[in-house]
Amino acid sequence: MKPARGKARVKVTASGKKVSYGQAGKAKDGGKRVKPGTAKGDSYCARSLGIKKRLPKKKQNDPNTPNNLSRKRWKCSGSKSRK
Where are the domains of the chain? Predict the structure, then answer.
C-alpha cells in the first residue's frame, strides 16, 4: 500500500482506515530522516508534544493519529527521544 503524497509510511487501522504519516525523502546527508536518541530527535519530540497537547483528550491517546505514529517511530518519551 502506498502512502499519501509527501508522506513516508502508511498504517491500516483495524477498521480498515488508511493513515499516512511521516515526512518522505532522505535527510540532508542522504541518510535516514528519523534518528532516535539524537538532538534532532529531542527537538522533534518536544515540538510534537506541543501538537499533542492541543488535541482533544480522545485523540491525544489514539495510537492511530499521524502525530502519535510519528512519535512512536522517533521513540519519544515526553519531550525526549530515546535510543
Answer: 36-83
